[in-house]
Write a structure and sequence with these properties.
Blueprint (H helix, E strand, L loop, with lengths): L4 E2 L4 E8 L13 E2 L5 E5 L13 E5 L5 E6 L17 E2 L5 E5 L9 E5 L5 E6 L18 E2 L5 E5 L15 E5 L5 E6 L17 E2 L5 E5 L17 E5 L5 E6 L17 E2 L5 E5 L9 E5 L5 E6 L13 E2 L5 E5 L9 E5 L5 E6 L18 E2 L5 E5 L9 E7 L9
Parallel strand pairs: 1-26
Antiparallel strand pairs: 2-29, 3-4, 4-5, 5-6, 7-8, 8-9, 9-10, 11-12, 12-13, 13-14, 15-16, 16-17, 17-18, 19-20, 20-21, 21-22, 23-24, 24-25, 25-26, 27-28, 28-29
Length: about 400
């Protein structure tokens, strides 16, 4: 597909919060807007516990930038309540927030937790409860999605019952009830060579057909990806009963013009297709944006070249204007990454280049998370670095639209 990059479009950009360590450090995940209008998120490090580095927090931020720490992890001995929340939270039908931590828990391999909007945290499950090598999963780096059945579905990057991981574990798909009863639905790398994928790095989305769709960062049937020989990643579908279908294996062509390493999850568009990102591959190995049908037919919409952004680690969000919005970790005019929009036809517009005023990047840099469009029409996101203390930021951005017949 022929794609073009449109000229940079002016946008309203505001840094709402610069993290300073005690109030959070390294927000890897996107924020979510809850029914109270405020935004909730996590930082992987920072907070009141674990010394100067911190073990991570759950925070609340109002649209005008008022930040409050709801919970600092590792409050309990041996971090039984979890540490290092890598993933976003999700607000469930009961109004509470649910999420995961990559570390901590009773068995030091991560947790699933529930937290009220007032900050009361309950640990629902500690991974590796069945002993090493953690057939129930370990190290969840991803958020949860609440299915239409009321249960939560997610992935872990490690653990599982596979025997083909050659010294490392390959991850799982799991279901967990709101009360904390966990069922492992699938263990990746269930076949030699991991053609079914390995290392699911982001969460799932439930399609309109009732199945769940996601990606694995490595694995699949192709392995000529420049960086690893463990496979270039996959897109998969999994039924609620655990039946998994690999829809696509990346790097299906020499040089990986179709992309490689889809570390972010998918979004289902109003057209019924799924849209996503890869951190590598493309023409210059700077990553791609793609569309894939529920049957597995993939179209590469855009290939980054570095000047327009590089390594889109976060997923896409479809906005009310039907276009898709996202971020890149690196590249752009100043090398600190970008905020962009792309149409379903593949036309990309750069909305913001991070680090516009030079180091230490007061406007943020290195966004590894997707965006959320709030009820006010603006997009909200996070950067993992930059800000006043180089601990990351929360930002707001809105597109300045023009039209021929607009009144002043």
């Amino acid at each position: 597909m022929t794609v073009i990059a449109a000229p940079a479009q002016s946008a309203f950009f505001t840094t709402l919060v610069s993290f300073d360590g005690p109030n959070g450090n390294f927000p890897w995940a996107p924020v979510i807007q809850a029914t109270d209008g405020s935004f909730y998120g996590t930082t992987r490090w920072g907070g009141a516990n674990c010394g100067s580095d911190g073990c991570g927090i759950v925070f609340k931020i109002t649209p005008d930038g008022n930040l409050r720490t709801l919970y600092s992890f590792c409050l309990l001995p041996n971090c039984a309540d979890g540490n290092a929340p890598f993933a976003p939270v999700v607000q469930a039908a009961d109004g509470d927030l649910y999420g995961t931590t990559e570390g901590g828990g009773v068995y030091s391999n991560g947790t699933v937790f529930k937290i009220t909007v007032a900050g009361t945290l309950t640990t629902l499950y500690s991974f590796c409860a069945l002993g090493y090598p953690c057939p129930d999963g370990a190290g969840p780096r991803t958020g949860l999605v609440q299915g239409t059945d009321g249960n939560f579905y997610g992935t872990t990057g490690d653990g599982g019952s596979s025997n083909y991981c050659e010294g490392y574990n390959c991850g799982t798909v799991f279901k967990i009830t709101p009360q904390g009863a966990l069922t492992t639905l699938y263990s990746f790398c269930s076949q030699s060579g991991c053609p079914d994928g390995a290392l699911p790095y982001d969460g799932l989305v439930q399609g309109t057909d009732g199945n769940y769709y996601g990606t694995t960062g490595i694995g699949g049937s192709n392995s000529d990806c420049n960086d690893y020989d463990d496979g270039c990643g996959t897109v998969f579908k999994i039924a609620p009963n655990g039946t998994l279908t690999t829809l696509y294996s990346f790097c299906s062509q020499s040089g990986c013009p179709d992309g490689a390493y889809p570390f972010a999850g998918l979004v289902q568009s109003t057209d019924g297709n799924f849209y996503g990102t890869t951190t590598g591959g493309g023409t210059t190995d700077n990553g791609t944006l793609f569309k894939i049908t529920p049957a597995g037919a993939l179209t590469t919409l855009y290939r980054f070249d570095g000047t327009d952004g590089s390594q889109p680690y976060g997923g896409l969000v479809q906005a009310t204007d039907e276009d898709f919005y996202g971020t890149t970790l690196n590249g752009g005019t100043y090398g600190g990454g970008t905020v962009f929009k792309i149409t379903s036809a593949g036309t990309l517009t750069t909305l913001h280049n991070f680090c516009a005023k030079g180091w230490p990047c007061a406007d943020g840099s290195g966004s590894e998370a997707g965006l959320v469009q709030a009820t006010d029409g603006f997009f909200y996101g996070t950067t993992g670095a930059g800000g006043a203390d180089d601990y990351g930021t929360v930002f707001r951005i809105g597109v300045v639209r023009t039209c021929a017949n607009c009144r002043p």
